């Protein structure tokens, strides 16, 4: 059997295309943002937790220090109390952080057992390496010009990243969730993202040893994305404060918990897309065995997937067509505060038909997405030329679902002091992402780019069930032994909402092995 011959790479000296300029800007921006975060974490850890390196001018994490800071909240004093909060306050305001529970959280960090301090400090110092240098690994021009440096950083990354994650696991094992700033939500999220990060690093090394560079790059991007949880938490505090200056830090922290999962994974996906712009055309590269098995499994499971989508439709109809949103769920009265339920119900009452349009369109789109994706999978990769006519209807239904969800979420809005928890974040995030990938699917159809059609469909299949999955998550939460104070803080609701887009993890694995990644290397 002859080995497939790859297409000849483009002239490396050619002028970069507009897409390549955009991709380079994106990668450099992410790299610099993470480097800044790494430097901030390094300063905080070295002056707060490592006793031999503590500065004399640092205000101690004491009750008296916190009281003095709140009595005179100047940027200089906040910077002395915490380098991290001081730097973030430069972009927003000191008062925002002084009024939050971050000050009390700092008190706990200074008083927690030494073992916890050692584990946390070690995790931070090793994680700093990944943040300082990891982003530059995805800069094609840097990688090509400084390949030796790229390999050196990569070697350090594959050592420090897993150890840093394991140290965070050890820290969480000896630290109850209520001692984390975001409590049970961050506890679950960190275990999930950390597990995927370690697995992805291992798979990236395996792909490199097998000389499957395209899979290696994609897995490294996925691992890097999973390490962005803590850094993006900080930058979300700043970005959301700009968008919602009247909303307090504690409320915005709940909001950021609702956007963290898709945000981090989509940053990783963006890094993969950026590198494809510079990748060599490899359209004849053979399909990975795991991808072929996954394609066959999906096609065999189609009846079960249709059944699941029909179940999702029943849930959506029950709550949005016949019911009044979240308040229609039996578990809502136990797990969701009354103010949020009343807010959503009032918006649906003021906009007759909005709930029905959303519930019906998102359900039909989910069913149709399974059909279109299956039809594309059945076509041979090299001979793919026919676009299912139902793909246009799928775009229309997806756009309708996305716009109606975004409208509902935006009208629900936010309120200070956690009155509505994360407010309309669940619908706004889900709706905007559905619109985004419906537009990507439209462009792919116009260009007859079958690989990107399948990839955008994979994302839609992960996003379209978000509302039904939220209700399923909420139903499960009522049977778990969640402490009453966690429920009062809205932790069960936040977890249910945050996990509603968890299928994106599956989609990122599709991206690693899918045709669009296979065509570049």
What structural category characterises the helix and strand content? mainly alpha
Low-confidence parts, pLDDT < 50 over ≥5 residues?
A: 1-13, 51-59
The string of secondary-structure elements, in order, is HHHHHHHHHHHHHHHHHHHHHHHHHH
* Total number of helices: 26
Task: Give me the Rg, rounded.
Answer: 24 Å
The overall pLDDT average reads 88
Estimated helix fraction: over 70%
The beta-strand count equals 0
> What share of the residues does DSSP label as strand, in percent?
under 5%
Largest sheet: none
Your description of this structure?
- The chain has 521 residues and is mainly α.
- It has 26 helices and no strands.
- The protein has two domains: 18-276, no CATH class; 289-518, no CATH class.
- It starts with 17 loop residues before the first helix and ends with a helix.
- The model is unreliable at 1-13 and 51-59 (pLDDT under 50).
What's a quick, concise take on this entry?
By secondary structure, the chain is mainly alpha-helical.
Topology summary:
Elements lengths: L17 H31 L14 H9 L3 H7 L1 H9 L2 H5 L3 H10 L2 H20 L6 H6 L1 H27 L9 H27 L3 H14 L2 H15 L5 H28 L12 H12 L1 H20 L10 H4 L2 H13 L3 H25 L11 H23 L12 H23 L2 H14 L2 H12 L6 H5 L2 H8 L5 H10 L1 H4 L3
Descriptive keywords:
521 residues, mainly alpha, 73% helix, 0% strand, globular, disordered N terminus
């Amino acid at each position: 059997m002859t080995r497939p011959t790859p297409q000849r790479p483009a002239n490396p000296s050619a002028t970069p295309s507009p897409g390549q300029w955009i991709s380079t800007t994106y990668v450099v921006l992410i790299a610099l943002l993470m480097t800044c975060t790494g430097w901030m974490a390094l300063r905080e850890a070295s002056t707060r937790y490592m006793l031999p390196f503590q500065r004399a001018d640092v205000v101690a994490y004491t009750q008296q220090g916190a009281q003095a800071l709140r009595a005179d909240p100047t940027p200089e004093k906040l910077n002395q109390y915490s380098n991290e909060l001081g730097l973030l306050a430069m972009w927003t305001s000191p008062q925002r952080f002084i009024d939050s529970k971050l000050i009390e959280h700092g008190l706990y960090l200074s008083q927690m057992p030494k073992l916890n301090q050692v584990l946390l400090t070690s995790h931070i110092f090793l994680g700093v390496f990944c943040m300082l240098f990891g982003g530059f690994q995805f800069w094609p021009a840097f990688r090509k010009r400084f390949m030796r440096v790229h390999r050196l950083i990569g070697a350090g990354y594959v050592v420090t990243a897993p150890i840093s994650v394991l140290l965070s696991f050890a820290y969480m094992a000896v630290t109850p969730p209520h001692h984390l700033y975001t409590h049970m939500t961050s506890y679950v999220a960190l275990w999930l993202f950390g597990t995927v990060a370690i697995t992805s690093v291992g798979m990236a090394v395996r792909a490199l040893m097998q000389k499957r560079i395209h899979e290696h790059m994609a897995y490294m991007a996925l691992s890097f994305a999973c390490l962005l949880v803590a850094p993006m938490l900080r930058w979300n505090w700043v970005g959301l404060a700009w968008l919602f200056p009247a909303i307090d830090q504690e409320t915005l922290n709940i909001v950021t918990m609702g956007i963290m999962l898709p945000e981090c994974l989509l940053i990783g996906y963006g890094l993969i897309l950026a590198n494809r712009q510079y990748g060599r055309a490899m359209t004849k590269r053979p399909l990975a065995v795991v991808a072929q098995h996954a394609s066959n499994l999906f096609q065999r499971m189609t009846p079960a997937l249709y059944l699941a989508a029909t179940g999702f439709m029943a849930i959506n109809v029950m709550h949005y067509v016949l019911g009044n949103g979240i308040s229609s769920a039996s578990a809502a009265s136990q797990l969701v505060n009354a103010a949020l339920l009343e807010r959503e119900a009032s918006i649906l009452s003021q906009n007759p038909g909005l709930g029905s349009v959303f519930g019906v369109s998102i359900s039909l789109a989910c069913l149709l997405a399974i059909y279109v994706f299956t039809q594309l999978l059945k076509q041979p990769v090299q001979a793919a030329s026919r676009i299912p006519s139902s793909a246009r209807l799928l775009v229309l239904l997806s756009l309708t679902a996305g716009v109606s969800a975004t409208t509902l979420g935006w009208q629900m809005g936010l309120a200070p002091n956690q009155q509505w928890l994360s407010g309309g974040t669940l619908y706004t995030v889900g709706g905007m992402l559905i619109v985004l990938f419906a537009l990507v699917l439209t462009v792919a159809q116009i260009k007859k780019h079958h690989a990107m059609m399948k990839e955008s469909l994979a994302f839609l299949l992960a996003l379209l069930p978000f509302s039904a999955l939220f209700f399923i998550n909420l139903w499960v939460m009522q049977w778990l032994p969640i402490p009453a104070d966690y429920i009062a803080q809205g932790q069960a609701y936040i977890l249910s909402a945050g996990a509603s887009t968890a299928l994106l993890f599956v989609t990122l694995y599709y991206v690693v092995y899918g045709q669009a990644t296979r065509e570049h290397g």
